[in-house]
Write a structure and sequence with these properties.
CATH architecture of the largest domain: 3-Layer(aba) Sandwich
Distance between the termini: 74 Å
Number of helices: 13
CATH topology of the largest domain: Trna Endonuclease, Chain: A, domain 1
Structural class: alpha/beta
Number of strands: 6
Strand content: 15-25%
Helix content: 40-55%
Order of helices and strands: HHHHHHHHEHHEEEHEHEH
Number of domains: 3
CATH class of the largest domain: Alpha Beta
Largest sheet: 6 strands, mixed
Length: about 325
């Protein structure tokens, strides 16, 4: 195709240039609207707090001040001023008294979820991690409900918890990508009777997007029932992933009962095979996770002792954890 004296390639480049300009402008427009909404909601919260400080009614959730504000603001400005939303605007200012600390990378709906987290350390973590992993509001809500901060914090000391709160989860070594327990409530499997490992695997594959969210940042799915052949005998790794940040394969074997020492030995064999047969130039040694319904920590300690490969044994839960119990355990860490 010729456009005047120009060829098709030049014309397509013109279309691409225009398209990039339009998409950039649209993105900036959306970002500008989001920033203005955050600024406005923060300012509303500021006005409410200043009203209180002048000796008027305390605006807790049950106060008549919030009830009246909601009614009058809705009457004048329309939707967006429910009592709960006006309360969140007040909380927004209280938790972020300097607007410069608010990031335009998150929406007001993100902040509405984050403000529901009472602990300051946990709230800081969810804000940073939502930015780091580009969580949607739905993904953020699920991570809060599954107590991700507390689960990660329990494996750290006080300094580690503070770093988690300020920076989110930084991934630099194998242990940084492992959780214990993993929460698989999204599979909607009843506690009893236990299902077979093949059915558990199928449920995970059917919900792979959410499972990747539970695994965390950097995981790419490679395959299921990955075959390994040794001396004409076939073995199958349940799930194989590649971690883009650590640059290594991550092998997951599923066990619907107690993890046994044979399971750890089998994983060790899988890792040795992958190091020799599957790794290519630039790949780091693979990581193995034996994920079981239960485990004996003493058995795991003895079974892993002396093994040079990076093997982790974690439990999975089919229900959301009791957040209050986990919060108390984290508080114990912070007071040591």
């Amino acid at each position: 195709m010729n456009i005047g004296n120009r060829n098709t390639d030049d014309y397509l480049k013109l279309i691409d240039s225009i398209g990039i300009t339009i998409e950039t402008a649209r993105h900036r427009a959306v970002q500008a609207v989001n920033n203005e909404l955050l600024n406005a909601n923060w300012a509303v919260g500021k006005y409410i707090i200043e009203f209180e400080q002048n000796g008027n009614e305390k605006a807790d959730y049950g106060s008549s001040l919030l009830t009246n504000l909601s009614k009058d603001l809705k009457s004048r400005f329309g939707k967006g001023f429910s009592k709960s939303n006006v309360y969140l605007m007040r909380q927004f200012y209280l938790k972020y008294p300097k607007f410069q600390s608010v990031t335009g990378k998150l929406t007001w709906t993100h902040y509405a979820e984050i403000l529901g987290v009472s602990d300051d350390h946990a709230r800081g973590f969810y804000e940073k991690q939502a930015i780091n992993e580009n969580w949607s509001v739905r993904e953020l809500k699920r991570q809060i409900e599954s107590s991700l901060f507390e689960r990660l914090a329990l494996s750290k000391d006080k300094a580690g918890v503070l770093q988690l709160s300020k920076e989110g989860l930084s991934i630099s070594e194998a242990k940084d990508i492992v959780k214990d327990p993993y929460i698989l409530e999204f599979l909607q499997i009843p506690e009893e009777p236990r299902m077979s490992e093949s059915k558990l695997e199928q449920r995970i594959i059917d919900n792979l997007q959410i499972f990747l969210l539970e695994l965390g940042k950097g995981f790419s799915f490679v395959g299921r029932q990955y075959r390994i052949t040794l001396d004409n005998d076939h073995y199958y790794v349940d799930l194989v992933f590649y971690h883009r940040i650590l640059k290594c394969f991550v092998l997951i074997d599923l066990k619907t009962k107690h993890v046994k020492h044979q399971d750890i030995g089998q994983m060790n064999m899988y890792l040795n095979y992958f190091k020799i047969e599957e790794n290519t130039e630039g790949d780091n040694p693979p990581i193995g996770i034996v994920l079981g319904a239960n485990k004996n920590d003493i058995l795991v300690e003895y079974a892993i002792g002396g093994i040079s490969n990076k093997i982790f044994v974690s439990k999975y839960q089919l229900y959301l954890p009791d957040r209050r119990v986990l919060e108390e355990k984290v508080k114990e860490i912070m007071t040591k």
